[in-house]
Specification:
Length: 149
């Protein structure tokens, strides 16, 4: 909507962002869409083509929220839906560690609602990064050998 007065336009954008941008449903839709966008990117990273549909992920999320609430499965803290409307170099602003994210439990497998999807916060997802389940098992074995709890 074009405005002649830039202050009015800024006020409109701010009101829009507060009402819609940081709300749950659009944020979840964009996050689920990100799972599928990565599969069609043209970069050199591995393209994990999901073994499920967007609707299956959404249904799984709704069951998770119904059973456990809007809580990160890794750290147990509530997640948020805060977006930064400002853009830097064509990208969104800084990420918020408490925001909702979708992770693969086993980094060597693709996204699948049959047990490889974890609903967590961005901070936990970033900390886990590319850790494989076999790496975690090996770390636990070293801890047991050294008598650590």
């Amino acid at each position: 909507m074009p405005y002649k007065n830039s202050d009015k336009q800024k006020a409109y954008v701010k009101a829009y962002n507060e009402k819609y941008i940081n709300s749950e449903k659009p944020y979840i839709a964009e996050t689920i869409g990100g799972v599928f966008r990565r599969a069609v990117k043209k970069d050199k990273r591995k393209k994990w083509i999901p073994n499920c549909t967007r609707q299956e992920i959404y249904d799984e999320l709704m069951l998770y929220i119904q059973d456990r609430g809007r809580i990160c499965e890794y750290c147990g803290q509530p997640w948020t839906y805060i977006r930064h409307a400002t853009k830097r170099n064509g990208k969104r602003g800084p990420s918020t560690d408490t925001n909702f994210s979708i992770d693969r439990l086993d980094a060597t497998q693709t996204y699948d609602t049959k047990g490889n999807i974890v609903f967590c916060c961005v901070g936990c997802n970033n900390r886990k990064n590319q850790v494989r389940l076999s790496d975690i098992d090996n770390i636990q074995k070293v801890r047991q050998r050294r008598g650590l709890k």
